[in-house]
Amino acid sequence: MRRVFSAIGVLVVLVIAAAGAFFFLPEGEPAAAASPKQPTGTALIERGRYLAQAADCVACHTAPGGQAYAGGLAFKLPFGTIYAPNITPDKDTGIGTWTDADFVRALHSGVGKGGEMLYPAFPYASYALMSTDDALAIKAYLFSLKPVKAKAPANTISFPYNQRYLMRAWRRLFVPDHRFRMRDGQPADVNTGAYLVEALGHCGECHTPRNMLYGLDNGQKFAGAVTQGWKAYNITSDKQAGIGAWSDDDLASYLAKGYAANHGAAAGNMGEAVDDSLSHLSKPDIRAIIAYLRTVRAKSAEADERVNPDPSAIKTSTAYAPPASEVKASPLGLTMFQSACASCHGWNGEGLEHPQAALLGSRTVNDPHGTNLLQVVLYGANRGVPGEGAAFMPAFGQAYSDVEIAAVSNYVLAHFGGKKSSITPADVAAARKAAP
Amino acid sequence: MARLKVNGQNHDVDVPPDMPLLWVLRDVVGLTGTKFGCGIAQCGACTILLDGKPVRSCVLPMAAVGSRGIITIEAVDAMPAGKKVQEAWTALEVPQCGYCQSGQIISATGLLSRNPDPGDADIDAAMAGNICRCGTYPRIRAAIKQAAKAGA
User: Fold this and answer.
1) Looking at CA atoms only, how far is residue B88 from chain A in angstroms?
2) Contact A321/B126, CB-based, under 8 Å?
3) Is pLDDT above 90 for A15?
4) Is B42–A394 a contact, with Cβ atoms under 8 angstroms apart?
5) What SS3 state is found at A286?
6) B-chain residues within 8 Å CB-CB of A338?
7) Looking at chain B, which residue has its C-alpha nearest residue A336?
8) pLDDT of A243 strictly over 90
9) Cross-chain Cβ contact B41/A394 below 8 Å
10) B19 contacts in A (CB within 8 Å)?
């Protein structure tokens, strides 16, 4: 009997020791060296600039109105707020003292310079796939920037989420321990696109739903998810729910310019991703992304979320006037639309002011939950398409009540999407709180 | 250098592609009849006709104009509908302070060019985005109807 007890005791001690080692042994730091193929000098910095754009580092590492890459953007999470750090080469407040090995380890394993685990708001579950050459090129670019002295505010994360070592378990589950692997038998552009989408663009961080442990549920890859009030739509190859029915040219236009004829325009986080990242990519890289997206397994969606390409109210509208039946009923939503929206959007879905104002075929006006519709009405859009000038929509959240915004949203969904929706003022109030 | 076709005349302007058309018209071309109101396409004071369509020039970037023809308040009387609208406006003494009126006249001209006999609902749909601080709306509606009757 005594023997059994001591055996159990030994086992318990071993398990505790193993767990202790798993959580508390210092992180290793593999040496990081570039391959002989890596460019040098200004060519390396230029390559790093392109890759940093493809990885959209600037989107998170820049506070609203702040200097690029100087950090400070707040991420409000259910368990506290974390702030993006300064990644300019400032020695005190940035990453000026980081070695190549420090930088590569952060991207591949989510470990900070001091050996601490980083919060996965930093998408190292995607960057883990990035090649060491590319990581080092990005570092070379960041180190070519002017150092900015800017200390990000301290994180306010509650217990137990502030116990960073626990993320080692999370990493074990959700972060690949290898670099990107080419898929045999796939054309070169599909592999290039997969690398751009998975390792650099980290599209899945928004477009793939998360599981209970906040890891990406890759069984539902790119099936769409809501983050901070905005819906990242289904971008699987499904013909109705995803992008399967879009032409290559429409997809290229949407990715490079943020809008496409008969598919509407991006706003919110996707608008930002286009402006900061996708619009800077080369045409072949955009084509490669499209080639890869075409291979992502189709995931369907609720029938009422599918885009109605030909809603009846549009057919009976002109650019300047709604159908007589709507005018006769004259609901609050129509009155709102004619005074605040029609001068740019028009009534027949083509858009009066700018191609980006076209609403026909936009998923935003076809989602009966009105997720992105409420966000864009409340907070507006401010897009800068290279070569096309700014496209701007005012934020109406301060000017109109929840009752009015619910009414205009229901009207827009019915008129431009042919959708029956029942957005309530309470939904509008909730949408106001959902955005950061 | 971009070429703008304003009121039938070509203007070569050296401006950034994201400069709003209103700035170009007022500060570069020198046509100050079109007014700045809110700057966010919500008041209608800056309305111009772009290929005959009333659009808000304050949020229209230069790069989006392209080769489309622009008509501003200075030349609206060159259009048959514009001339009738202008005459009706004068006859009924529509303006009070006048600040919004170039936009009102342009929107009314756009409306009558495509719909020569608008009803009240048509007028509402076309004119609701043009705000008048003095509340001249009844006279605006009356003037549009008078212009329509005059065969605009």
Assistant:
1) 22
2) yes
3) no
4) yes
5) helix
6) 124-125, 128-129
7) B128
8) yes
9) yes
10) 389
* pLDDT at residue A368 tops 90: yes
Q: Do A389 and B18 touch (CB under 8 A)?
A: yes
Asked if residue A362 lies in contact with residue A265, where contact means CB atoms within 8 angstroms, the answer is: yes
- Contact yes or no for A218/A208 (Cβ under 8 A): yes
Greater pLDDT, B66 or B104: B104
A343 and B62 within 8 Å at the Cβ level: the answer is: no
Q: Which domains does chain B have, with CATH numbers?
A: 2-75 (3.10.20.30), 76-149 (1.10.150.120)
Q: How many alpha carbons fall within 13 Å on the CB side of residue A390? A: 14
DSSP character string of B28-82: II---SSPPSSSSSSS-TTEEEETTEEEETTS-BGGGTTT-EEE-GGGGGGSHHH
Q: Where are the beta strands (DSSP E) in A296-424?
A: 381-385, 389-393
State in Å, rounded, how far the first CA of chain B is from the last one: 37
| 8 A C-beta contact, residue A250 and residue A262 | yes
A130, amino acid identity: M
* Gap between the Cα atoms of A338 and B131, Å rounded: 12
CATH class in words for A306-434: mainly alpha
Q: Measured between CB atoms, which of A338, A388, A391 is closest to B124? A: A338
In A195-259, alpha helices (H): 204-207, 248-257
Buried b (16+ CB within 10 A) or exposed e, A151-189: ebeebebeeebeebeebbebbeebbbeebbeeeeeeeeb
When pLDDT is averaged across residues A366-395 and rounded to a whole number, the result is 90
**In the structure encoding, which two tokens stand for residue A229, read together?**
């009030």
- The residues that bridge with B10 in the sheet, in sequence order, are B5
Using a CB–CB cut-off of 8 Å, the residues of A that contact B are 318-322, 324, 327-328, 330, 335, 338-340, 342-344, 347, 352-355, 384, 387-392, 394
Which residues in chain B have Cβ-Cβ distances shorter than 8 Å to A411?
none
Distance from CA of A338 to the nearest CA of B (A): 6
Task: Identify residue A3 by its one-letter amino acid code.
Answer: R
Whole-number pLDDT of residue A411: 96
Of A342, A344, A394, the CB nearest to B125: A342
Q: Do A352 and B122 touch (CB under 8 A)?
A: no
What was the pLDDT predicted at A140?
98
Q: Is A19 exposed, middle or buried (0-12, 13-18, 19+ CB in 10 A)?
A: exposed
What are A283's strand-pairing partners?
none
Whether the CB-CB separation of A224 and A209 falls below 8 Å is answered with: yes
Beta bridge partners of B5: B10, B69
Of A318, A322, A353, the CB nearest to B56: A353
pLDDT band of A306, cuts 50, 70, 90: confident
Identify the residue among B21, B47, B55 best suited for mutation to test binding to A, counting A beta carbons within 10 A and taking the highest.
B55
CA distances to A120, A232, B111 from A267, rounded to whole Å, are 24, 11, 31
Smallest CA–CA separation between A344 and chain B, in Å?
7
Contact A217, A309 (CB under 8 A): no
What is the architecture, at CATH level 2, of domain A188-301? Orthogonal Bundle (1.10)
Interface predicted TM-score of the whole assembly (ipTM), two decimals: 0.89
